[in-house]
């Protein structure tokens, strides 16, 4: 018992140098230390005005009239490809006049992505009503995949050059089909729906089909 009392007296006389555990430290002191370490944000423009230092103008960007901008515009314009008509193959120049001399020529034209094999004088009934046309209008059909006669056929890739032919169509008018009535009903369902439809179509007549002269083409 005397040894325990002596040890306690010695511990009371010596100064305490050990720190308490970290979980016993106050959290307020750590937060206050972090707040004191942050510096105030100062605007450099406001600081120069308070100090009486005149502000210097910023460097202006080069205008469009500067030589650097002109050189950049010239480079961009020269880099853009120019659309030039493709040159004709020598075989096309040689055989196209023979094709033009033969009668009974035909052509496969494309109207709104759908092909129609026609000759001069044929009537075409489009499966839709073409918007923006009235009876009597003349249309230039410039998309064709085939142009040929009895002995020769010019195949396009995918379309024939529009400088080699002229195909025109006259809008005759529009016609409508009889009224359709369709009853929609499901099994084990007492409700039914009646749908009425009456489609309209545009009628074209091929008024001109000729092969152009290739002497004036490049």
From TrEMBL:
Region called Disordered, residue ranges: 56-88
Domain of life the protein comes from: Eukaryota
For this record, the Gene Ontology CC terms, alphabetical, are: mitochondrial large ribosomal subunit
**MF (Gene Ontology):** structural constituent of ribosome
InterPro entries linked: bL21-like, bL21-like_sf
The residues that cross the membrane are: none
Q: Which of UniProt's keywords are assigned here? A: Ribonucleoprotein, Ribosomal protein
Q: Where is the composition biased (Low complexity)?
A: 56-86
Keyword check for Ribosomal protein, yes or no.
Answer: yes
Q: Which Pfam families match?
A: Ribosomal_L21p
Q: State the family it belongs to.
A: Belongs to the bacterial ribosomal protein bL21 family.
Q: Mind telling me what this protein is named?
A: Large ribosomal subunit protein bL21m
Taxonomic source organism: Rhypophila decipiens
């Amino acid at each position: 018992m005397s040894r325990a009392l002596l040890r306690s007296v010695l511990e009371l006389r010596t100064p305490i140098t050990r720190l308490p555990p970290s979980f016993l430290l106050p959290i307020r002191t750590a937060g206050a230390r972090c707040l004191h370490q942050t510096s105030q944000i100062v605007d450099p423009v406001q600081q120069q005005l308070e100090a009486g230092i005149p502000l210097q103008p910023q460097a202006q960007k080069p205008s469009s009239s500067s030589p650097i901008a002109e050189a950049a515009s010239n480079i961009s314009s020269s880099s853009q490809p120019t659309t030039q008509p493709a040159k004709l193959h020598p075989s096309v120049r040689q055989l196209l006049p023979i094709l033009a001399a033969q009668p009974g020529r035909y052509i496969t034209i494309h109207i709104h992505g759908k092909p129609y094999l026609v000759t001069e004088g044929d009537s075409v009934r489009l499966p839709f009503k073409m918007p923006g046309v009235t009876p009597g209008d003349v249309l230039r059909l410039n998309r064709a995949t085939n142009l040929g006669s009895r002995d020769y056929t010019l195949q396009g890739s995918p379309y024939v050059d529009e400088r080699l032919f002229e195909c025109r169509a006259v809008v005759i008018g529009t016609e409508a089909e009889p009224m359709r009535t369709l009853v929609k009903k499901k099994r084990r369902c007492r409700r039914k729906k009646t749908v009425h439809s009456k489609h309209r179509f545009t009628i074209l007549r091929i008024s001109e089909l000729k092969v152009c002269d290739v002497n004036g083409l490049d």
